[in-house]
Specification:
130 residues; mainly alpha; 5 helices
Length: 130
């Protein structure tokens, strides 16, 4: 029974990744097309993806609303079900929260450092593209 439950979880995870992939691709393309002039790659390819979706109005509704809602509903139901049935999961969550509370200042420093690195990377790419 345990093997079957693990296979079901893996299948759900795989299905959710497939369902959210079009929205992630579109959002990534919107981000990438703004990094540099459209004439240069990968901004040109990203613009083609955005244009393709925009020309087909149904894709925006399906890719950006319907599929993410399906993932949200399915993922929430799966997480809630596992939370109710798995005492180990609840214990691991409690331990994780305790570790976060104990190390909150250090985690905030790490988050600020990663944000600074990301900001500098974006600014550097922008300066290099001009």
């Amino acid at each position: 029974m345990r093997v079957t439950a693990e296979r079901i979880k893996r299948a759900i995870a795989f299905a959710e990744l497939l369902l959210i992939a079009p929205a992630a691709l579109f959002m990534g393309a919107v981000f990438v097309r703004n990094l540099q002039p459209e004439a240069r790659e990968p901004a040109h390819s990203a613009q083609q993806i955005v244009t393709w979706c925009a020309e087909r109005r149904w894709t925006l509704g399906v890719f950006l609303i319907a599929l993410p809602l399906l993932v949200l509903a399915g993922g929430s139901a799966t997480l809630l079900n596992n939370w109710k049935e798995d005492a180990e999961l609840r214990q691991a969550a409690r331990q994780t929260l305790a570790a976060v509370r104990a190390n909150l200042p250090l985690l905030l420093i790490a988050a600020a450092t990663l944000t600074a690195a990301g900001t500098l990377a974006i600014v550097t790419l922008h300066v290099l593209s001009d």
